[in-house]
Specification:
4 copies of one chain form a homotetramer. By secondary structure, chain A is mainly alpha-helical. Helices cover about 65% and strands about 5% of the residues of chain A. In chain A, helix 7 runs parallel beside helix 13.
């Protein structure tokens, strides 16, 4: 443990943490420098040997983070001391090559392109986990199209709903996030390359050529312009991950509510040591949901920072750009930690259909009051029907009777509806509308999004 | 002035304010109710006469906002009292029809679809103004591709840049916002229709048919599922407007900095009464920029609210949904007020190219120090070149001399570079790289986005 | 309904809405102008007759909001057109007096002092409602010191807790908010008076005299300096109300969770029309809690705006100050709407102690597992005790038996603890520690805060 | 460099980073455990030898962060695995003592009390740096009470102002922050001690005694109640640091604007390597101001998270509490980094009074237009005076003449005011009102706050 480390509570995957580690940040900038040198050599602007020497030194593990950090504080960004250190290293290898390090670029070119490279890695990791969560949700939907539970609005029982349709809601949101992530790739996965003020002045007339070649080296796009102080590209990544985290937070909210002792319809996977308490032997805490909800609670404030930092000054900002540096990575890490936990929770989700049924029954049939009311409306008038059923509900609850039993004793009802029909109306499993078709629609929609993705 | 009004400081356009007025909110819900009745009549679910009677009463101006407001507080949302009042009104016209009001829907169906209709209006208004701002920026770019001013980074002079390239940056961001707005239309412009828990139970097996017909009536899409507690669609609208506002804030930041007395390179339009002071006769305040910056400062916090409200409970949320109600409209109003002001500022923007040139000159040539340094590097070595020019810059500034003059007296320089060449190196207008091509690229990119929009 | 009104969903009290209406904003500025004239007349700087004429015209109801609004957009703030209109009105009454309108002040002096006057009104209204909520909570605590329910952590049953102690938590937080509100009064209830740049230059050497007199007229403090661009005073008000709203949100979260059908331990007051549904006859929605939670969800984003707007430029800001104008009032309105709803919910709160007891029983005694485990620890060792009780809990739940019954059949237990003692250990009412003393402490602490307030 | 480190861009002081390192977090919890054992031993609840054994093992450096981190992810918080590891360690030393580890407490007791201990350290560090910044500002005020520069509103010249009065504004805000920090200590520096649900059930009737003793051990207060889900205490710390950061951001905004090339009135300290550029030899970037502004831009979003997380569930929250864990430390670190940079910037601030005077002169006297206008008003009428001076300003600026010279040629003026008097009116140094007295007031107010602090 170093004195200053702050990773005790990070819960992103090791891969994602690596993607946004100090080393990855340095490597991102170094990849830019190597690719720039290669591009310039390919175009005859610098010697091929110089490009080779530069590229050979562009390995993050050879640099001292603490030294770069000290330099970053003094100079205002991490690229300046890194380039100085790189130049030193190149000099040792090939003094001639040293003067071509960072040729034609500005420090923000390296920093932003490095960030884009980190984001590309992150988007790849997200894609894999999104795919996995999607598969787990599809399985849940398939399995539980007819597993009824109480649908709840305002935290009160409303009508029956199959668990599969709840899961279809999660999948549907996931599909739209994947769609947006695909849409933004073209805007985001581009190089930053403009030189000090975006004109590429130090490359004379050849700036765009170099830019195109640089982009090809890095397998990124070449945007119309440098975007040093137009930050919508990176903020959009944050916002889209915010939509992801919001959807995962919704999923976790639901599961944690279903996992309440008094509801007990769904549970996080039970693993040894998971969710226990230091003193209470009986506890099974929904720790995955808590982690997801915490991430979903933290991202919005970080997004506010990113949006608020957009109005940056002239050709390079003062404070706004700097405010992004740790904020966007934090959004990525939190969103991924939420996604990782969601995969665990959904893949290991344990449902109790018996308890779902029991909870439905405990409502004494009032969750289908609407069905009875609608059936009676054409027979006795809508208002009379509503009042009649409202009274019957109250009685059923007060006397702990089934709504069916109460209604079966009302001549106003039995004179108009047969007992068999009444029983049908009071059967929750018959009052689920087009729930199954909706599940099918959601599956089809998701499939169409992921297909077009490929 | 009503006692409770709070519109003194609203600066959105009258059209946008109308789009998010209380009346428009009511009309949105009523449009849903009318379309629902028509759809159900078309499918034979309710009498055609009933649909006609209902539609005839769906006029917002016939309802009392204060009464609906009181009811909304009691019942928890505005649709419940509105539907009650509508039912009353329909009863007076055709008692039979009354029982078909709101048939098969839930209050959130009306509220959310109403919101989508308001958003469609808003998106249309945005489109018009974005088009207009785009035109004004294109004109600026065309006119000022060669109008040089000091490019500034960290609020310090860096290199020369044509004003047209600054404007191209604004246009480029605008283009991406238009692209995103186009992408989100399919996701956002859809009906909300699910009944109490999203199953459309009260319509039996015909829910999807009704949904499809309803969507057609309103010229909206039919989504895979109801999205009562999956809020990414509406949050995405907010986020995209946040990207717009961020870009406009950047534009306003720049203009207000250029308008400083000590810089005096660009000014907001001067109109009688605009930007004056109550006591200071000399003041010309950049009030348009201030309004844009204020809007850009207010939207991020509102977006944090929208993102944070996403994890909504089960089939209908408790608190989160309600938190959206005034927040998203506020985002729309603020973004539009920023856009409206940006159109005014850019269309009436007054530039002072003479002052730009003078400010460039006042840097004594140090803004092209990089050019000289790069030219000397191959001749004397990079490090020696850098030191030589650094020293010359310091001397030029200390003695208030031109960098050229200082360099022209250095044998190390003049022995290697002719005076004519040196003069060329010190000419800011020759050190702008590919600025003009970049302007062309930005114009082409924007044209391609707007073309594909049509 | 005016076309542009947006008050349909405001739920603050009429008094609070009046305090932040357009009219109140104008009146705040006019009160400043009247007091300034009186102060200057008292010091012989302007004629007494002029002060009288000015004061006579300082009635908000005589001004046209829409005209002031148009002027505000053009000039950048509402004070400029208001002062112009006031000057016109004074001219009509006494042409000589007109030239003393706003003498020595700047528009921000009027706007900020007006805001402080509005805040003073608001703080008074808060005080009354806080007092009322405090009384209602004290009654709940007194009544329910021994009313046990399941204490829940991570939404899972933990140990028994008296409802009175939960309520004591709400009261405790309320007390600290009242303490903070008292502490900030001296900082916040001060005039803003500095002239254009804070030097009071146009009053020569007499600025501070005028300031002192002005402050006395308005019964406000005179701060050390003008605070045109030092905004901590007003942001602090927002932050403190944010703490209030957070605490009320916690209260509403709890109540809405207790009101779940499956828990059914506490309910919002049931009033005709309150919390019903448009289609579901059985619904009792916790609409008060939803309103509180929505307010608590909206305030944090608004606070982010206020904090982010603090770094304002030089002697008067550009964008940041303007971002406050509608934001702080919104915080006040939302916080008050939460408080108003909390008073209603708590005053009319309906508890079901029988159900609380039943829910405790339904845990089969596992909520006191810790008690048994602790009692066994010295007898069999801590680890053995923990394992023994853990196993018994699992068995009790699996077989739906009382933990006591399971334990009573274990020789390892009965050989060491008498059945009577075991029964005592399994009695939730005996496992509440110092809950009653804590209630007393909380009541005493709150009393001491409110006493010192008086 | 470890693979996952993320400290490259942290700029808080080493002391503050240590205060919020993983190690400090562990040590905070361990200090709680040690003190708890001691308190219980002192009260005869556990053996003295057990307390000694426990205390002996409570050294953070003996625990493996990565192991605790893995356990934290599984169990939901860091205290559970830490206590398990501690118990193991104590067992090795004294098996009997092991069963008294964490006796009577819950994991949140350890975590929150540990946090309070970290906050106490942090508040101490803040105090030292606030004192130092205060001293530097006092020196600036003393030195520059009469150093005039252009006062600027809306980024436009308004009236002259002494630099000392600007600095007095920074000091005044600082004083109020120190006052608030003092006020909150009593609320914040308290133990968290409640056991699983706040009743201290496992300590029978002795919970409060233990609490009092524990508090004494740690030199913290004992609050009325446990505050597991009443989070105002810690959020208040964040909010107060947000006010600090906002004020520092304002200071940095000012300095960076004054440091613009075109203004050039104030500069950050120039140190070798500080604020340079990788390619532009002439650059002196205000890197300290950028760091302060970035911190001030990041804190508001973090505060939104803290406020939004307040409505936590029942006796222990699900997601909200967890959202605080890294957020509040981040606020502390950012606020301190801003403060540290502000100390550097202010202590080394370099002013250019000559340039200030020159900039004042370059306004051609229009910054004192108000003075002339006010002097003429009684002689020719206010409106005529305003028009006359407005015209003269326009002419002065258009023709690049001194306002005095323009006025001196107007018979309307010279017939009423002597040239000597006119010259006086046009002298900026005579138009600064009570600026010096205000400086004195601010110094006195600050002194009174810091005195009462002692």
């Amino acid at each position: 443990m170093t004195e200053n480390s702050r990773t005790l509570l990070d819960q992103a995957s090791p891969e994602m943490r690596a993607a946004f580690s100090d080393r990855a940040r340095l490597q991102g900038m170094l990849d830019f420098e190597a690719a720039l040198a290669k591009a310039e050599a390919a175009l005859g602007l610098i010697p091929t040997t110089a490009a080779a020497a530069i590229a050979a030194e562009c390995r993050a593990e050879d640099f001292y983070v603490t030294r770069i950090a000290r330099g970053a504080e003094l100079s205002g960004n991490a690229a300046i001391p890194l380039i100085a250190a790189l130049t030193e290293a190149v000099t040792a290898r090939d003094p001639e090559a040293a003067r071509f390090v960072h040729f034609g670029a500005t420090s923000q070119d390296a920093i932003d392109t490095g960030l884009v490279l980190q984001l590309r890695t992150a988007l790849g990791l997200f894609e894999v986990e999104l795919e996995r969560l999607g598969r787990a949700l599809i399985a849940l939907i398939d399995q539980h199209r007819q597993t009824l539970l109480v649908g709840r609005t305002w935290l009160q029982p409303a009508l029956p709903i199959p668990f599969g349709l709840k899961a279809a809601g999660y999948l549907s949101a996931l599909g739209r996030v994947r769609q947006r992530l695909r849409e933004l790739r073209g805007r985001v996965l581009v190089v930053q390359f403009g030189g000090a003020v975006g004109t590429l002045a130090s490359l004379g007339t050849r700036g765009l050529e170099v830019g195109a070649r640089l982009a090809r080296e890095l397998e990124l796009g070449l945007p119309d312009l440098a975007w040093h102080t137009q930050r919508d590209r990176v903020v959009e990544v944050g916002a889209t991950l915010g939509l992801l985290a919001g959807g995962l937070g919704k999923l976790a909210r639901d599961i944690s509510l279903l996992a309440q002792w008094e509801v007990a319809e769904a549970f996080e996977p039970r693993l040894p040591g998971r969710g226990g308490s230091s003193t209470l032997p009986q506890k099974q805490n929904p720790v995955g949901c808590a982690a997801i909800l915490a991430a979903a609670a933290r991202i919005p404030g970080l997004l506010a920072t990113l949006f608020a930092a957009m109005p940056q000054e002239h050709e390079r900002g003062l404070g706004g750009w700097q405010a992004e540096w740790d904020t966007l990575p934090e959004v990525c890490l939190l969103a991924e930690s939420a996604l990782k936990h969601a995969v665990q929770v959904i893949e290991g989700l344990s449902l109790d259909p018996g308890r779902m049924q029991a909870n439905l029954s405990r409502t004494r049939g009032v969750v289908v009051a609407e069905a009875v009311s609608l059936a009676l409306a054409p027979l006795v008038g809508r208002s009379a029907a509503h009042q009649l059923v409202e009274g019957a509900c109250a009685k059923a609850l007060a006397q702990d009777q089934e709504l069916f039993a109460v209604l079966a004793e009302l001549p106003d009802v039995t004179s108009r509806i047969s007992l068999a029909e009444l029983q049908g109306l009071c059967d929750p499993s018959r009052y689920v509308g087009v729930a199954e078709e909706l599940c099918t629609r959601a599956l089809a929609e998701y499939a169409s999004i992921t297909r077009s993705q490929a």
